[in-house]
Amino acid sequence: MSTIITSIDPGSPAMRAGLQPGQQLLSINGHTVVDVLDYRFYGYDPVSHLSLKNKDGSTQKLTIHKAEGEDLGLNFDSYLMDEMRSCANHCIFCFVDQMPPGMRQTLYFKDDDARLSFLQGNYITLTNLTEREAQRIIDLRISPINVSVHTTDPQLHCTMLGNKNAVRSLDYIRAFCKAGIVMNGQIVVCPGWNDGDQLRRTLRDLTEMEFSSCSLVPVGITKYRKGLAKLKPVDARCAGEILDIADQFGQENLRRFGTRRFFCADELFLRAGRELPGEDYYEGYRQLENGVGMLRSLEGDLLRALDLMDQPPAPSPFTIATGRAAEGFMGHLLTLVQQRFPQVQGKVVGIDNDFFGHTIDVAGLLTGQDLAAQLQACKPLGRVLIPLHMLRHQEDVFLDDWTVPQLSQALNAPVQVVGIDGFDLCDAIFGL
Fold this sequence. Notes:
- It is a single chain.
- The protein is of the alpha/beta class.
- Helices cover 34% and strands 16% of the residues.
- The chain folds into three domains: 5-76, PDZ domain (Pdz3 Domain), CATH 2.30.42; 96-290, pyruvate-formate lyase- activating enzyme; 298-429, Rossmann fold.
- The strands form four sheets. A five-stranded parallel β-sheet has the order 7-8-9-10-11. A four-stranded antiparallel β-sheet has the order 3-2-4-5.
- A hairpin with a 2-residue loop joins β2 (24-28) and β3 (31-32).
- α7 packs parallel to α8 (236-257), α10 crosses α14 and α12 (368-375) runs parallel beside α13 (404-411).
- The longest helix is centred in the middle third of the chain and has 22 residues, at 236-257.
- The relative contact order is 0.07.
- The mean pLDDT is 90.
- Residues 1-36 form the PDZ domain.
- This is Radical SAM protein.
């Protein structure tokens, strides 16, 4: 079973109390343990009364004293202590449905698990949530959770999610708002579907619910959309309209509540040809993981890093590889560096996404094979700098399973992975 203990951390409270692998954890402080959230929340207190089932079928009760918040030290067969829940929806804009065949299997799995939303920041639709889990979120005040909203029109919500029962997720959103649960939302804007007046309705409804924060991002459309709902990319005109609608409601929220609440992804500003807003707009970068404010944050950190430098020696030449969307902005950042330190020799190369199609223009969806093919024509390269988010989490693998060493060999040039902020970029430029 999922709550059977597989191992115990050395020196942990559970080890000191004499627990053994093979025992099954039944409850903590009288609360049945079903999954990792039960384990973490009910085991938070400094005194934990455990009910266990032994290998021989007998039960045992045991009390553990520990520091508040200290983990009991128990490990189970899986991280969630349960099966990961796959998505029950058929969203019209789902990126997984637009993937080419033959890629690694994990890229085709659609998760929609509320526990991963809280623990790892995954976005969920709430359509998989049970009444017990919804009540647990309220009772334990589990926050924040990341929620895919898209629209608050019930019929359109069901249509866009491809699930006739998806309206229940709107009920959960209202209940969570009423209970004060912090939610970070996302609206994938699909022209002709949930833009224009539908977007105004959604932002108005979320304002009245006092929804915590919500990002607006443009739909991503690959060249593999076959047999799927007809979608159009967000063009310059549409991006400008989205920005204007979000700003209208953002200004209203600032006056009424002291928060903008709605934040537009960097891509929308770039597509509309508008200047990125200042740092104050992002309110501490609440939606940074959703591509909101990433470029402004990168510039601010880079300028602060440059202010801390004396007169560094001239670094070896380099090439910054990025997606077409950020090519101009990265060129702007390189100019800022060279204005202060003329000895810096570098260039920015925007890469077309031949793998997914040219409507996909962000760096994070570039593949090793596209980088290799297009950078070949830009030699001499010097050092090749690529952003961390091109790669699989904690690995050196691109979406197409090319690796960083493989790319380096193909280019006959060193490839350097640059971290997520401007300090990392500064260090990479100067070879520190």
